[in-house]
Amino acid sequence: MEGGSKTQSGMDKELDIIIIGGGIIGTAIARELARYKLEVALVEKEADVGWGTTKANSAIVHTGYDPKPGTLMAKLNVEGARLYPSICEELDVPYKRIGSLVLTPSVDGFKTLEQLKERGKINGVIDLEIITQDRLLELEPNISKDIKGALFIRDTAITSPVELAIAFRENAEQNGVRFILDTTVIGFEIEDRRIRLIKTDRGYLRAKWVINSAGIYSDEIARLAGDDSFTITPVKGEYALFDKEVGDIVNHIIFPLPTETSKGILVLPTVDGNLLVGPNEHITSKEDTNVTEEGLKEILSFAKKEVPSLPLNMIITVFAGLRAKELRRNDFVIESSPVVENLINVGGIQSPGLSSAPSIAIYVTEILKDKGVKLFPNPNFIPERKAIRRFANLSWEERSRLIAEDPNYGEIICRCEYVTVGEVMEAVRRGANTLDGIKFRTRAGSGRCQGGFCGPRLIPLLSQLLEVSPEEITKKGKESKLVIGETKR
Amino acid sequence: MKELRTDVVVIGGGPAGLASALRAGELGANVVLIERDFELGGILNQCIHTGFGLSLLGIEMTGPEYAETFIEKVMSLSNIKVLLSTMVLDIKDKVVYGVNKKDGVITVKAEAIVLAMGCRERTRGALGIPGERPAGIYTAGSAQRLINIEGLMPGKRIVILGSGDIGMIMARRLFLEGAEVLGVLEKLPYPGGLTRNVVQCLEDFDIPLYLNHTISEIKGRYRVEGVVAENLLTKKRFSMDVDTILLSVGLIPENELSKKIGVHLDPRTGGPVVDQYRETNVDGVFACGNVLQVHDLVDEVTREAYIAGEGAVNYISRKRRIERVVHIRAGENVRYIVPQRLSLPIDTPPYIYFRPQEPFKNCQILGRIDDKEFLLGSYEYARPGEMIKLRLKRELLDSNLDIEVSLVGEKE
Amino acid sequence: MKILTCIVCPAGCKIKIDEEGNIQGARCDRGINFVRKELLGSERILTTTIRIEGGVVKVLPVKSKGSIPKEKLREVVKKISSISVKAPVRRGDVVYDDGEISLIATRSIEEVKDV
């Protein structure tokens, strides 16, 4: 970049496209654009991708039966959900089609289920079945006997959003997209209704086109360009994650009857075999991902009504995420800015944002094409990306062979999730430079002891691999240092 | 894959594993001792303070000294094979599966298994403390490892949640290393660990102990910036300007492996249900040390491990004669009892270990079968943080009847 | 009258000393000796770590030979914070002695062998 205290070589020239924001949307767009002969870079303010809303949501790929017909949400959800299986296969990311159930505690509720089924038909989702209590209890023996029936959606799936964002990133990078991390956009220089310069806290960038996929902050980014055509209201959702021991207490994603504004508090398995409860819904500020006592009580008491045997003493962690809602439009805001010609806003991506990510990326590409961007296919584009081989999931023979190839796979550093030093080293090779970066790529630290065992061992290991002193190792970038120095000065 | 066969396999090379391997080895068995760290000693290696060995060896030692004493004995026996840097991942049909860098996958087939995996610490997530998830939150044991093994200092201004022994010992350790320790918050009305630690770790250095307090909120997005402490009785809150939080809120016996082979756990202890030989419900599988019950003193861990090691050898040589089994139940005011079962007949009445539910003074421990009650012991003080050990009476062992152990006394 | 908690062993006896100097409540002689010493001035054994070069671990746990006045503990730790010893070390070795305090290694540390 030009100027600034840190200069990156090759960043001085004008790029074709800069994507602001490296969540699931930004990374999906980056990977999509990598298919074409374009100079693309993505700027992200955190130390890694996927650390905003992407890392704190329900991880569901909805089928698209429930958004209001005619909206962008409905169209892109249905299209995105259809693309998911092949994308997750190409990128080696978990995808489990476990199905979902919308429960009704009353006989009246069946009317609502019928309405949902009808809406689904309009949107193009037809595998929806209304079932009665007997069938429900067959599918879900632990559901409360107060529930009268449910809408069964067979094709709803769960995935791993941060892993997918990481996979999009790795594949995009492999295909030539540059990722500029730990860098915040602080302003634009506009001339003749076009962005000429992008100002960041580490210097300047120049690009012909700017895509604003900055999540919670996308309205602020637009405003930096004088565009106040949309406003983001952050709506917090709190979650509790349970030990794998209770991961099979339900087999499907359990939804309550939806309200006007929200899909409700859910009980669902995660792709890793844990159980997730949440989210509630409260308007808050953009910096508030605080889990509150009341919020926790709210989601747990709700869940216990649906699953009475839920053991509250098996919670291993709690967290909260912010939905980026555009409350006036009540739809995605994916359009060329009305104020600046070369800015494309991708904002208000609340649920079903995750489900729509692949189709949002294609939709944005089409907007660029309409605006005259030449999309010449990149003949060297490699669509496949392999995840880090997980020791824990291998057979004993495979483990034996892996250790023989590389003895570092014989040293287990995370005893709860059976993660080896070999995997940590591979994660570092792929760009992880923080404890959370290691966690999201290998699962080290996400088990029942929550990093108590591996934490003290990872700090010196990362210090060695990244060739920095231990006090420079952080949990999640910025000031999140783990130690202040050696005990003996 | 490397395949070993032996008489007794011991999983865990901390004080429990060392002592049970040693006893089994001394009795002539072939032993394989498996340890995941690069050296033996387990948690003792990071317990650089004194408090070890006074009862068993007559000298007060530090953790590393105690460990080395037993490591030397173990290494001197040629019939004990030690596997280091080896993590046990599974047990199936008395075959233990482990991995290490050198051998890759290694299996050990044994006649008897001794579980000595120790325990892990309860985490913040399990407590549901509201707030952000910044860096700077450590469990006391993790912080202890950071300081005493890696030589790294976790922070400058510390608050400790929980007055368990590890928390108090870390309060002192951090203070001596130059940190400011603003206080220890304990949610109960009494301290969680040994009284001697309240004195020599907190009172000695004027580190405040706030009983009936907890953390109601953690501030700081990337690194801890402070906490809000709350008095649970008055509901009054106050801020503490800290950059580090240590959690000393409980230890959980690490029984994931035990569950894999069908070992029944006692929900009161978190560890296996065992008889006086420390045998679990699975034939030939024994348990000792913190994996069985969280101990206060390593001396008792060693004694218990000797019993388990001997039990394993006697099991193999078919020396035991079991005609009937009775259960020992935790009665009024008793939190738990170990062992939970007795394999009878028995020559000498065995010791039982237990903890009171809350602090008591001027109390009696009673053992009862049917309607007959026997006094087992009298104590001036009985505290949950200080395990009690006493012998059962002969009269309780002569029948088929289950025994109930209870405590009567004045609440402190 | 003073009540002191003895810290010699985990029993933690509460020992009473009245104005005449009579000592009550100690379960053993060590307690009586502790209380006598304590009244003259609190002293404690120091346990800490010092840096070690070339060993299989980075820091060496040590204990003071004899006890040190409580108020001096923290400054002693600061004073020895810049010392370093070389591996190998045997348990029991006196690794530091400045006339005032001496430190004993509480474990053996082998030298790292270059393969």
Q: Spatial order of the strands in the main sheet of chain C? A: 8-5-6-10-9
Chain pair forming the biggest interface: A-B, 56 and 48 residues
Q: How much is the radius of gyration of chain A in Å?
A: 23 Å
> Can you tell me the CATH superfamily of the largest domain in chain C?
CPE0013-like
Query: How large a portion of the residues of chain C is in β-strands, by DSSP E?
Result: 25-35%
Extract low-pLDDT stretches of chain A.
1-10
Number of domains of chain C: 2
CATH topology of the largest domain in chain C: CPE0013-like fold
Shape assignment of chain C: elongated
- Estimated helix fraction of chain C: 10-25%
- Helical segment count of chain C: 2
Measured between the Cα atoms of the first and last residue of chain C, the distance is: 65 Å
How helical, in percent, are the residues of chain A?
25-40%
Number of strands of chain A: 24
Overall strand count of chain C: 10
CATH domain class of the largest domain in chain C? Alpha Beta
* Average pLDDT reading of chain A: 94
Polypeptide structure, described:
- The complex is a heterotrimer of chains A (489), B (412) and C (115).
- With 489 residues, chain A is an alpha+beta fold.
- Chain A is built from twelve helices and 24 strands.
- Chain A has helices at 24-33, 72-91, 109-123, 133-139, 161-174, 218-224, 293-306, 353-370, 396-405, 421-429, 435-442, 455-466, and strands at 15-20, 40-43, 60-61, 95-96, 100-104, 128-132, 149-153, 157-159, 178-180, 185-191, 194-200, 203-205, 207-212, 233-242, 253-255, 266-269, 275-278, 282-283, 315-325, 333-336, 343-347, 412-414, 419-420, 485-486.
- In chain A, the strands form six sheets. Chain A has a six-stranded mixed beta sheet with strand order 9-2-1-13-21-20, sandwiched between helices.
- In chain A, helix 2 (72-91) packs across helix 8.
- Mean pLDDT of chain A is 94; it is low at 1-10.
- Chain B folds into three domains: 2-120 and 252-320, FAD/NAD(P)-binding domain, CATH 3.50.50.60; 123-249, FAD/NAD(P)-binding domain (3-Layer(bba) Sandwich); 327-411, no CATH class.
- In chain B, the strands form seven sheets. In chain B, strands 1, 2, 5, 6, 7, 8 and 20 form a seven-stranded mixed beta sheet that branches. Chain B has a five-stranded parallel beta sheet with strand order 10-18-12-13-14.
- Chain C has 115 residues and is α+β, with helices and mostly antiparallel strands.
- Chain C has two domains: 2-41, no CATH class; 44-105, CPE0013-like (CPE0013-like fold), CATH 3.10.530.
- Chain C contains two helices and ten strands.
- Chain C has helices at 29-40, 73-79; strands at residues 2-5, 14-17, 23-24, 43-44, 47-53, 59-64, 68-69, 84-86, 94-97, 102-105.
- In chain C, a hairpin with an 8-residue loop joins strand 1 and strand 2.
- Strand 24 (485-486) of chain A pairs antiparallel with strand 11 of chain B, so a sheet runs across the interface.
